[in-house]
């Protein structure tokens, strides 16, 4: 079965500090992994994806994520957080045999304080 | 590019009435559209997948007679909540995948439905 886990409901970080939002996955075979961000009362915005290739994936708004196969992780990172980064972040994995189906994590609320 | 819109952004309806939510891909043709439901402070739950011109595929536990999905064109899918009840109140989000797109889905801004 495919699944992703986001172990932290909430992450607090000061503006200017680096941030990490954690995600671990469970899939059979090679995973297709995604990060999305959701602002209040809005839909999800695509940040980045890992399909294959370089383990460090760069995405929108200065975010990046590192695919670690041995640890089955795909943590989202940013070197210097902005207050405007405060939002809900979702990790997702695409189903192996049904590319229409995404499995979303439970979401992590990122709070960046000035 | 890859913009998906939803209308309305919020709607309030009375119990027993039906409400229709539209999902449009504005700058690409969406062969496949998806409808999700999101409860407060929870993740997205896939309700159904619709392909243009064919019947929607519903996830287990989703009542197809209650949540009617129509994907009449390559740019429009509609979700109709029939005989709405207060427990149908939720945030409904659609997403779309382009004909040439294999990997990511593009999400609409969501529709907040409140049933009184």
Count of beta strands of chain B: 11
Strand residue percentage of chain A: over 45%
Give the number of DSSP strands of chain A.
12
Tell me the structural class of chain B.
mainly beta
Question: What is the straight-line distance between the termini of chain A?
Answer: 41 Å
Summarize the structure.
Chain A is mostly beta strands. Chain A has strands at 3-5, 10-14, 19-21, 24-26, 33-38, 44-50, 56-58, 64-68, 73-78, 87-94, 102-104, 108-113. In chain B, the strands form two sheets. In chain B, strands 2, 4, 5, 6, 9, 10 and 11 form a seven-stranded mixed β-sheet that branches.
Note down, in words, how this protein is organized.
The complex is a heterodimer of chains A (114) and B (116). Chain A is mainly beta and 114 residues long. Chain A contains no helices and 12 strands. In chain A, strands 2, 5, 6, 10, 11 and 12 form a 6-stranded mixed β-sheet that branches. Chain A has a 4-stranded antiparallel β-sheet with strand order 3-9-8-7, with no helix packed on it. A two-stranded antiparallel ribbon of chain A has the order 1-4. In chain A, strand 10 and strand 11 form a beta hairpin. Chain A is globular. The model of chain A has no long low-confidence stretch (mean pLDDT 91). In chain B, strands 2, 4, 5, 6, 9, 10 and 11 form a 7-stranded mixed β-sheet that branches. Chain B has a 4-stranded antiparallel β-sheet with strand order 1-3-8-7, with no helix packed on it. Classes of the chains: A mainly beta (114), B mainly beta (116). Chains A and B meet through strand 6 of A and strand 5, strand 9 and strand 10 of B.
Write the layout of secondary structure elements.
The complex is a heterodimer of chains A (114) and B (116).
Chain A lengths: L2 E3 L4 E5 L4 E3 L2 E3 L6 E6 L5 E7 L5 E3 L5 E5 L4 E6 L8 E8 L7 E3 L3 E6 L1
Parallel strand pairs in A: 2-12
Antiparallel strand pairs in A: 1-4, 3-9, 5-6, 5-10, 7-8, 8-9, 10-11, 10-12
Chain B lengths: L3 E4 L2 E4 L5 E7 L4 E9 L5 E8 L5 E2 L8 E7 L2 E6 L8 E9 L7 E2 L3 E5 L1
Parallel strand pairs in B: 2-11
Antiparallel strand pairs in B: 1-3, 3-8, 4-5, 4-9, 5-6, 7-8, 9-10, 9-11
